[in-house]
Amino acid sequence: MTTWKEFTEAAPHISAVFARRYAATGNLCLLATLRSDGYPRISPLEPRMFEDELWLVGMPHTTKFHDLARDPRFCLHTATVDTQVSDGDAKLWGVVRDVTDPGVQQRFAADLFDRTGFDIRGMAFDHFYAADLTGASAVEVGDGSLRVTIWKPGEAERVVRKR
């Protein structure tokens, strides 16, 4: 599996598109998980990058985190309202692992407070998910074509153009 740091080094173009869209939406993404009946669920999420990892952490006892506890597979898509996709978009997929180390959780909470003022310091987490990436893609439109950049672990980014 691939950490956030390893992903940004192996897929610099896709990670740049992701970072640009992530920042443009105030850190909002859409998380796809699998419900217990096998159907997909799409939920808003503000993922965080911390200590070289991508973290999928949020309000406790939500169904999206129950989904991940049952089936760790996910897809994370940058949010967009631009039907022309003029600034691109990016998708990441992978699996989560639940990190139970209270030291990591409290460092994360302190960092979140320092960056945003949102105070969850001292709280216990029911799930604290780090993302291991198994693939990614970015879509950009320009010059009369669609450019899709694709990445898989162990491979270089590759571009497919569609007219």
How many whole angstroms does the radius of gyration measure? 16 Å
Q: Bin the helical content.
A: 25-40%
CATH superfamily descriptor: Electron Transport, Fmn-binding Protein, Chain A
Instruction: Tell me, briefly, the overall form.
Output: globular
Q: How many beta strands in the DSSP annotation?
A: 9
CATH topology: Pnp Oxidase, Chain A
**What percentage of the residues does DSSP assign to strands (E)?**
35-45%
Largest sheet: 9 strands, antiparallel
Q: Report the top-level CATH class.
A: Mainly Beta
User: Segments where pLDDT lies below 50 for 5+ residues?
Assistant: none
- Class inferred from helices and paired strands: alpha+beta
Q: How many domains?
A: 1
Explain how this protein is built:
Strands 1, 2, 3, 4, 5, 6, 7, 8 and 9 form a nine-stranded antiparallel beta sheet that branches. The termini are far apart. Helix 1 crosses helix 2. The chain is an alpha+beta fold and 163 residues long. The longest helix is centred in the last third of the chain and has 15 residues, at 102-116. A hairpin with a 2-residue loop joins strand 7 and strand 8 (145-151). The protein has one domain (4-162): Electron Transport, Fmn-binding Protein, Chain A (Pnp Oxidase, Chain A), CATH 2.30.110. The model has no long low-confidence stretch (mean pLDDT 94). It is globular. The chain has helices at 4-10, 12-24, 63-70, 102-116, and strands at residues 29-34, 40-45, 48-50, 53-56, 73-78, 89-98, 129-142, 145-151, 158-162. The chain is built from four helices and nine strands.
Short description:
The chain is of the alpha+beta class. It is built from four helices and nine strands; from the N terminus they run H-H-E-E-E-E-H-E-E-H-E-E-E.
